[in-house]
Amino acid sequence: xxxxxxxxxxxxxxxxxxxxxxxxxxxxxxxxxxxxxxxxxxxxxxxxxxxxxxxxxxxxxxxxxxxxxxxxxxxxxxxxxxxxxxxxxxxxxxxxxxxxxxxxxxxxxxxxxxxxxxxxxxxxxxxxxxxxxxxxxxxxxxxxxxxxxxxxxxxxxxxxxxxxxxxxxxxxxxxxxxxxxxxxxxxxxxxxxxxxxxxxxxxxxxxxxxxxxxxxxxxxxxxxxxxxxxxxxxxxxxxxxxxxxxxxxxxxxxxxxxxxxxxxxxxxxxxxxxxxxx
Length: 278
Hints:
Layout: E1 11-14, H1 18-29, E2 37-40, H2 44-54, E3 57-59, H3 62-66, E4 71-74, H4 78-88, E5 97-100, H5 107-113, E6 119-124, E7 134-140, H6 146-157, E8 160-164, H7 171-179, H8 181-198, H9 203-223, H10 228-235, H11 241-251, H12 254-276
Parallel strand pairs: 1-2, 1-4, 2-3, 4-5, 5-6, 7-8
Antiparallel strand pairs: 6-7
């Protein structure tokens, strides 16, 4: 975010955990000045680490931190969000853009807790945002202006790619694809490493080969104009070694397995929205 007359003068992070720190780091790398960034949280020791690492303004007073901010990023755990929002309501009469990173809480619930009629962007980020290769799904409620949507896009774009959805319910499948997705790939990596060791490789060798293969496959897929199905076919020579592995996966119904798992993830996101949004 290169500084400009249109850049937010104050971005307030309510909560200073890993995701908040990832976004702060990304914004600083994009050129936003430290003086424009503020963070609050309940523990002074944790805030001191944030101030030491990033040189930004810190406070244990959420309301004071949010007061006058152009953007307020709610970076607290879902279970804490209602209490935090109720404590902020009287500080948001200036109607800043609200960006919520809390999983499972709808914009309607957040708006109600904040006193209503707030411009809210709901975001589902993922953990690779910590190394600026994240994938975030975003939804804007009806109160978000075009300029505010652009601001949210820039803020989350500082830590990876951004995909907007027009229906808030689609944040649940976003959760199933990218929000929880890193864990699926970590599980596949874990299984490949274990299998490599069973086949005779050292753990170190199996780990290095697996991680580099995962990285290379992702970069190739990202940079190629060819879809992933065709990229897979190009590696799978008829009657070759890869074909034997792919046939084994297909015989074990890997596609149905992923469909069931990701549907369960999306359904749980719906359940959490109903439970935590009351």
